[in-house]
Each structure stands twice: as C-alpha cells, then as structure tokens.
Design brief:
Shape: elongated
Helix content: 40-55%
Number of strands: 4
CATH architecture of the largest domain: Alpha Horseshoe
Number of helices: 9
Largest sheet: 4 strands, mixed
CATH class of the largest domain: Mainly Alpha
Length: 200
C-alpha cells in the first residue's frame, strides 16, 4: 500500500471513530487503492454495523473472507455477529479495530514505553495530531540516516487507537527507510505527537 493510501486509511479510521461515518466512507471510496484493501473494507463493514446495517456489514466481511481468507478481523466479526446481543455490538465494532492491528504488531511492530536519553545525533519534531502526508514527507530529509525513532503522545494511551498507532509506525518506518522494529511508541501528556529521530 502506498504512503498516500496508508495516510488516507489512517484518516478514515480517525473520522469513523469520531462518528463522522459519511466522511470516512467518502474518503475510502475516493481512493481506489484504499477501497480495495481488506483494512478499508473492514472499516466500511464496521461503519455499516455501527449504524445498524448488519446485512451490508456481513456482505463486506464475507467479501473480505473470499479475497483474504487469512484476514482474522473479518472472520472474528462474522463469528461475533451471530453471538453478541445488540447492546454489546458497539464493543464488537470498535473493539475489532484492536484485532486488525494485532497482525501488524505481530509482523514486527514493537510497542515500547520509554524514550532513550538525548544524544548529539537526535532530531526532534512535533505534530499537532495525526500527521498529514505533507508532514510525513518532511521525514524524507532523514531517509537512510535514522537508526531509531521514538514516537510519544497521549493519543497512544487510548487502546482504541492501536490501529492508528500501528499504521503510523509503519508509515514512519517506510519514510525513514528503517525496519518497523526500530520505531518505538510511548505515551506522553497531550495529543500532540512528539517525534525523536536518532541518526548515524
């Protein structure tokens, strides 16, 4: 998935979590590369389910299972649709975002808690929230020079933001040409995202 597609998906998750379902759907459907991914279809299914449209949600999850049988969030959501009482469906919908991120975390994303001591080869940035593509593009100046990246924000303390955290980690690693295991995420005060990049 290209960086612009990852950014669009991250923004769509943020919009959906804020209850801006129409905006999230419009963003996903306006990006052909995004709308064909299992992650985007899963988000669209969760939006449908959140609004009580379980028929369309089920159809989307079934489409994902056909295209990507290994995509566990869709399998789990379909299993849960038959079991959960209506009053607990909200936990199913947004709790499932955690499952969507687990695969990313298990594939090499490392979630850390602390930041290393300051050193002479460190660049610091601050983003007011989820970075735009233009903000991420500024990391290109340090591409190939970074050895470790620390991201910290109060935003990361929210368990429902685990998918955002995983996607952001992946995008930062991609921009800096470092393995995802070199990007560490910790918590801090406030929703601004503090970025510390150690370079050679």
């Amino acid at each position: 998935m290209a960086n612009s597609a990852k950014t669009a998906l991250l923004c769509a998750y943020t919009l959906a979590k804020a209850g801006r379902y129409a905006d999230a759907e419009e963003l996903i459907l306006s990006e052909p590369e995004v709308s064909r991914t299992a992650e985007a279809m899963d988000l669209l299914a969760r939006i449908c389910a959140e609004q009580g449209n379980f028929t369309d949600a089920r159809r989307l999850w079934q489409d994902i299972r056909i295209a990507r049988p290994d995509y566990l969030p869709a399998k789990n959501a379909l299993d849960d649709l038959g079991k959960k009482p209506m009053r607990s469906r909200r936990l199913l919908i947004w709790g499932g975002i955690l499952a969507a991120a687990v695969a990313l975390i298990l594939s090499g994303l490392l979630i850390g808690r602390g930041l290393s001591p300051k050193g002479p080869n460190r660049t610091e940035l601050s983003w007011p929230g989820i970075p735009t593509a233009a903000m991420l593009d500024r990391l290109n100046d340090l591409r190939g020079q970074a050895t470790r990246v620390n991201l910290s924000s109060g935003f990361f303390a929210d368990p429902s933001k685990v998918t955002h955290r995983a996607l952001l980690t992946d995008m930062v690693a991609d921009r800096l040409a470092v393995p995802a295991s070199a990007v560490f995420v910790g918590t801090a005060e406030g929703d601004a995202i503090r970025v510390e990049i150690e370079t050679r």
